[in-house]
C-alpha cells in the first residue's frame, strides 16, 4: 500500500470555511539538532497582526532533544509572523524562539544573541543575502531522478539547465518559490545547481535579524512543500561523495559604508578583519564546528580549502569573492562562500557583524 494520501481529497476539506473569528496559528521552531524544524498548531479566537499579540506556548522538549523527561516543558516565544500558504485565509505561520524552564534560551536558540548583536550594530545598517543550496532525494534517500543503480552523466549540463534529462524536481522549486512570495518572505530568486537534483534559492537583501527569520521560514516551507510531493530535502553540505559539487549557503554582506561611494575601501577592510579570525568563522559555519564543512571545503568543486583563507575578484574558489561589478564600481558587497548549506543563518550573520562591524577578534 502506498504511504501517500490524496491531496485532491485534502483540498476538499481545506476549502471548508472556518468561523470568521477563528485562526489556525502554526508555531514553528528549531529543534535540539540545530538543523531540523518542528511545528504544531493552535486555534486562536482572533487574527494576529504582530507576534507580540500571540500567546507564549510550550512543547515537550524531551522529544526534540531540548529538555529532560523529568522537566520537559520548553517554551515557545513568537518572534515573527507570516501568512500561511497551506491553509490560506487568515491563518498564520509563527516563527518562535525556544526557552527553558528557567527562562534562559535553549542551546539551539541562536536568535536571541544574534538579535542583541544586530541591535549593537544597527547604525552600520548591515544587509544580508543568503543563497541556500539543497538536494532533493527520493523517499529512499537516493537523489531525485538519478539512476537507481548508477550515476547520471558528469556535471556540466545541469546548472541552470532545462529539459527532463537535465532537471529533476522543478515542480517543487516552483511551488516553494510561490509559497515564499505569498508568505512575505523576501525571496529573490532560484536556479538549478551544478549537481543534478540540487537547487538553490536566494533570500535577501534583508537587514539585521530579518535575514535569519526569513531563511529559517523559507527552509520550513521547502520541507513542507517537498512533503506534499513525497520528496525529501537534504541540507547536507556534501550529500554525494566523489566528483560532485557540495552544497553551501553563500552569504552576501554589506554595510552602509560599503554601499556608499568608494565603499571598496570598507570591503577590503572587512576582508582583512575576516582573515584574522578564519578559524572562528569556520567553527560557526556549520552546526558541528567545521566537521560538516570539512567534506565540502576541499579546494575543489568551486570551494576554497577549509584550512586557508583567501579572497579574490570573481573567484569562486576563494573564501571571499568580490563580484566583478563591485570591483569595477568600487561599491557594493562581499560574498562569503564558506558557510555550509546546513549552517544556522543566525550564527553566520551574527559572526559577520561581530567581526566586521563590532571589531571583535
UniProtKB/TrEMBL annotation:
Q: Please report the name of this protein according to its UniProt entry.
A: Glutamine synthetase
* Domain GS beta-grasp: from-to ranges: 21-103
Give all residue intervals belonging to the GS catalytic domain: 110-361
The record's annotation in PANTHER family points to: GLUTAMINE SYNTHETASE, GLUTAMINE SYNTHETASE 2 CYTOPLASMIC
On whether Ligase is a keyword of this UniProt record, the answer is yes
Please indicate which superkingdom the organism of origin belongs to.
Answer: Eukaryota
List, alphabetically, the PROSITE patterns matched. GLNA_1, GLNA_ATP, GS_BETA_GRASP, GS_CATALYTIC
| Enzyme Commission number(s) from the entry | 6.3.1.2
Keyword field: ATP-binding, Cytoplasm, Ligase, Nucleotide-binding
Family, similarity comment: Belongs to the glutamine synthetase family.
Q: Mainly resides where?
A: cytoplasm
- The species this protein belongs to is Halocaridina rubra
Q: Name one GO molecular function term.
A: glutamine synthetase activity
One of the Pfam families matching this protein, by short name:
Gln-synt_C
Among InterPro entries, the record links this protein to: Gln_synt_N, Gln_synt_N_sf, Gln_synth/guanido_kin_cat_dom, Gln_synth_cat_dom, Gln_synth_gly_rich_site, Gln_synth_N_conserv_site, Glutamine_Synthetase
Q: What class of enzyme is it?
A: ligase
Compartment(s) of residence: Cytoplasm
GO term, biological process aspect, one? glutamine biosynthetic process
Q: Can you state which reaction this protein catalyses?
A: L-glutamate + NH4(+) + ATP = L-glutamine + ADP + phosphate + H(+)
Cellular-component GO terms for this entry: cytoplasm
Amino acid at each position: 500500500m502506498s504511504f501517500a494520501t490524496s491531496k485532491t481529497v485534502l483540498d476538499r476539506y481545506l476549502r471548508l470555511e472556518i468561523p470568521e473569528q477563528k485562526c489556525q496559528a502554526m508555531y514553528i521552531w528549531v529543534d535540539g539538532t540545530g538543523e531540523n524544524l518542528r511545528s504544531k498548531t493552535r486555534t486562536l479566537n482572533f487574527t494576529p497582526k504582530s507576534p507580540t499579540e500571540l500567546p507564549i506556548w510550550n512543547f515537550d522538549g524531551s522529544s526534540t532533544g531540548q529538555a529532560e523527561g523529568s522537566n520537559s516543558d520548553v517554551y515557545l516565544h513568537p518572534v515573527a509572523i507570516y501568512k500561511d500558504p497551506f491553509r490560506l485565509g487568515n491563518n498564520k505561520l509563527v516563527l518562535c524562539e525556544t526557552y527553558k524552564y528557567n527562562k534562559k534560551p535553549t542551546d539551539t536558540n541562536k536568535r536571541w544573541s544574534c538579535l542583541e548583536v544586530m541591535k549593537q550594530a544597527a547604525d552600520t545598517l548591515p544587509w544580508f543575502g543568503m543563497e541556500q543550496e539543497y538536494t532533493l532525494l527520493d523517499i529512499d534517500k537516493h537523489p531525485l531522478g538519478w539512476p537507481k543503480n548508477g550515476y547520471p552523466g558528469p556535471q556540466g549540463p545541469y546548472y541552470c539547465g532545462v529539459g527532463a534529462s537535465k532537471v529533476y524536481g522543478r515542480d517543487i522549486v516552483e511551488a516553494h518559490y510561490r509559497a515564499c512570495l505569498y508568505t512575505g518572505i523576501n525571496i529573490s530568486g532560484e536556479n538549478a545547481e551544478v549537481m543534478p537534483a540540487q537547487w538553490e534559492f536566494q533570500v535577501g537583501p534583508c537587514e539585521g535579524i530579518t535575514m535569519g527569520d526569513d531563511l529559517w521560514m523559507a527552509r520550513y516551507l521547502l520541507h513542507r512543500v517537498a512533503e506534499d510531493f513525497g520528496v525529501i530535502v537534504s541540507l547536507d553540505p556534501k550529500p554525494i561523495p566523489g566528483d560532485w559539487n557540495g552544497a553551501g549557503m553563500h552569504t552576501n554582506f554589506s554595510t552602509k559604508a560599503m554601499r556608499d561611494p568608494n565603499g571598496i575601501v570598507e570591503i577590503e577592510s572587512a576582508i582583512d578583519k575576516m582573515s584574522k579570525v578564519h578559524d572562528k568563522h569556520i567553527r560557526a559555519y556549520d552546526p558541528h564546528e567545521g566537521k560538516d564543512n570539512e567534506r565540502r571545503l576541499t579546494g575543489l568543486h568551486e570551494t576554497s580549502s577549509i584550512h586557508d583563507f583567501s579572497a579574490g575578484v570573481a573567484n569562486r574558489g576563494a573564501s571571499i569573492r568580490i563580484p566583478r561589478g563591485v570591483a569595477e564600481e568600487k561599491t557594493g558587497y562581499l560574498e562569503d562562500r564558506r558557510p555550509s548549506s546546513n549552517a544556522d543563518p543566525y550564527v553566520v550573520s551574527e559572526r559577520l557583524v561581530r567581526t566586521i562591524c563590532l571589531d571583535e577578534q
